[in-house]
Amino acid sequence: MTENGETKSCVFNFVLRVSRKLKDYYLSGLAEGKAEPSPMKTTWYCPLDLSTVVEEEEDGVIYTVVVKQQHGAPTSPLTAVTRSQCVKAGTEEKLVLHLLHSFCMGDSSFITIFLSTYRSFSSPQRVLDILTDRLENPPGDERSQTRQSFNKAVCTVFSTWLSEYPEDFMSLGEPSRLLRLAPLLPHHSSAAVDLRARLLRIAEELSEKALLPDARTDQSALTSPPDPSKFEPTNVLGFPAAVIAEQLTKIETELFVRLVPYHCLGSLWSQRDKKGREGVCWSVRATVRQFNKLANAVLASCLWSTNLRSQQRARLLEKWISVAEECRARKNFSSLYAVVSALQSNPIHRLRKTWQDTDREAMRRYEELSEIFSDKDNYSQSRELLKEEGTSKFANLDNRLNNKHPTRSSAQGTVPYLGIFLTDLTMLDTAVKDRLDNGYINFDKRRREFEVLAQIRLLQSSCKNCTFTTDEAFMQWYNSVPTLNEEESYRLSSEIEAPGEPSPRGLTPTVIITQCPDLSSSRSSLAADSESLFDFTSPVNNLLSKLTKHMRSPSVSCLDVDTSTSTNDSTPATLTPSTPTKSHRRSASCGNNPLNNSQTSGPDMRIIRIRMDLQDGNLYRSILVTSNDKTPAVISSALEKHNQDPKQASRYELIQLLPEGKELLIPATGNVFYAMTSSSVDFLLRRKGGNPPAGSQPISTETSATFPRIKAKGRRLVRTLF
C-alpha cells in the first residue's frame, strides 16, 4: 500500500510540473508575440465580465435573473459570481409578499416601484391584508437570523409606505385593519415602536372620523359663479405682465406640489368618469381646472368687449404674449401653454384685423413661444427644455430676456405641462399588456411607468421651496372672469369679425391621424440606473421613441376635460377637440401617404374619437381601430366605452365628422380603417333612423373651436382609449 501511494504521489507531481511548464511556455510565447512590431497595440490579457440573463419561474412569480461572472487575473484563478433577481411578473399575492424579500434578492428598487404603481392592479386594503396574514406566520425562531432580517424588512416596507403615501391608510375608512396589524409588528426595535405608534394614531383618527359627522364641505361647490356684469376685461392691461405671471406661477406651483404622481397613471386616469369614481385623480383634475380657467381668462379678456377697435384688442393680445414670455422666464410651462393655446384657439385665431394690428416684435416672440410646444419628434423641444431646466435654478433664456430679470435671486422650480407625462403614461398603458398570457401581473410594465413618475417627483422637489406673495388686486380680477363655452366664444368672435374671411395666422392647430403598427412588438429590457431621470436613453423612453415612429404623433397637446363636475362648476368644457379650418396646416401624417407596412407583420392602427348623439356632445371616447376592424366591432367598442350596451350595436350607425360640417356614413359591414378619410379623427354614433341635428353649426369647423387646439394629435389620447 505504501509503494502504491508513493507511485500515485510521483505521478501527481509529474503532471503538476508538466502543466506548469506548459503554462510558462504559453505565457512566454504571448509575451514574445507582444514584443513583435505590429501596427496595432494588443493586450494579451483582458478580464472578462460576462453577464447571463435568464428567467426563472417559481410558484406564482417569474424572475429575471442576472448572473455576472468577473474573471480574475491569471495568477488568481478565482472567479467572482454575482446573482441578482428582479420580478418580471407574478400573481397579486406573490408581488405583495416580494416586498419583504426584495432587498435580500438584489431587487432594491422593488419597494419604491410597487408603492408607486400597485393601485393599477390592487388596493391598499388588499395589500394590507396580505402583509398582515404573512406577519401572523413569520419565518424562523424569535432570535434567528432569518427572523431578524424579516423584521427589518417589515419595518422598512411600512415606514416607506407611511412616509410616502399616508393617504393610503387614511382611505381605509375604518381602523380594524390597522388595529389588527399593530400588535404583529416587531417588538425589539425603536423603529418598530415608532411605526406602531404612527399606525395607532391613524387608527384613532379613523375612529373619530367614523363616529363624528364629516363637517368638511366642498368649497368649490359653494363658490358662486362670477357676476358677468362686474367683469372688466380691459383691466388686465393695468397689471404688469411680470405680476400676472408671478401669480399664475404661484397657483400652478401649489397645484403641482400637491399633485399625486400615481394619479397620472393611465389605468387610473381612464377610470375617472365611471360611476362611483368621481373623486379619483383629484389632483390631476385640479390641474385641468386651472389650465381651463386660465385659457378661459385669455379668451374672455380678448372677446368680451365686442365694441373695441382692432388696435385696442391687439393690445390685449400683446399683453398675454408678454405674460406667456414671463411664464417662460419662470419655467412655468403649464401656464405658458394655456396662454399660447388660448391665443391659438379658433375664436381668437380667426380675428384677422386684430392680428394685423398686433406689434410685429410681439408676434415674433409669440411664434418662438409657440414652437416650444411643437409636436415635432414627440414634443422633443419641450422634453429637451425639461431635461435642461428641470432641476436648474433659473430658466435658460437669451440675453434679451435675461436683461429683463437682472435681480433674480431665489431659485425657481419647474412647473411642467402635465399633458406630456399623461401622454407618456397613456401610451405605455395602451401599448403594454397589464397581464401575461398566463394571467400574471406584468410588473415590467410598472417599472416603465415608474420611470415617468420619477421624473414628475423630481420636478416636484424643485418646487417645494418656492415662495410667492399674493397680489390681491389681480386675483380679484382673475376670479371675476365669467366662463365662456365654445358656442359663446365663437358668437362673440363672430360679432367682432364676421365669419367667412380667411385667417392670416400660420400658427394653427393640426389634425393628425395616428398610425401605430405592431405596438406589441416592443420588448422590455433590464433597466440599469440612468445617469439622470431625464436621460432619454432609458428603456421607457426607448419604447416611447418606438411608438413615436409608429404612431407619427403620439403626444397629446391638451389636458382633458373634467366631465364629472356639476353644472354649477365654473370649469368650462373647453378642451374638446375639433376639426381645423381650411387655413390650418397639415402634418405629413395627415395626407394621403400610403401606410408603410413593409417592415411590420401586425395590422395598421389608428386612434379615432367617437361621441354619441346625445346632449353631452363633447364627451368623446378614444378607440384604437386596426385594419382588421369592421363597423359592428367598432360600434360595439364605442358603446362599451360610453357605458352603453354593446349588444345594441346593430341599432347604431357610425358617421365620420368632416370639415365644413360634412358627414361620411361608414358602411354597416365595411372596414372602418379603409373607409374613413384622413381629414378628421372625429366620429359620431347615431341611432339608425335618427335625423341629423338642425343645422350643421355644432359640428362645423368654426363653431367647434376649443383650446388648446394646437397640434391635437389623435385628439385627447390622454383619455387613455377608454
Describe the protein.
Residues 83-207 form the N-terminal Ras-GEF domain. Residues 560-581 have a biased composition (Low complexity). This protein is α+β, with helices and mostly antiparallel strands and 722 residues long. Among the domains are: 51-211, Son of sevenless (SoS) protein, Chain S, domain 1 (Up-down Bundle), CATH 1.20.870; 231-394 and 410-496, Orthogonal Bundle (Son of Sevenless (SoS) protein, Chain S, domain 2); 605-687, Ubiquitin-like (UB roll). Helix content is 43%, strand content 9%. The protein contains 26 helices and 9 strands. The chain has helices at 2-35, 92-97, 110-117, 124-135, 145-164, 166-170, 176-181, 190-211, 219-222, 241-258, 266-269, 282-303, 310-329, 333-343, 346-349, 352-356, 360-371, 380-389, 399-404, 418-431, 443-463, 472-479, 486-496, 539-551, 631-641, 672-675; strands at 49-58, 61-71, 79-90, 441-442, 605-612, 621-626, 652-657, 663-665, 682-687. Strands 6-5-9-7-8 form a 5-stranded mixed beta sheet, with helices on one face. A hairpin with an 8-residue loop joins strand 5 and strand 6 (621-626). Helix 5 (145-164) packs across helix 8 and helix 10 (241-258) crosses helix 13 (310-329). The radius of gyration is 31 Å and the shape is globular. The chain starts with a helix and ends in a 35-residue tail after the last strand. Mean pLDDT is 74; it is low at 26-48, 215-222, 503-602 and 693-722.
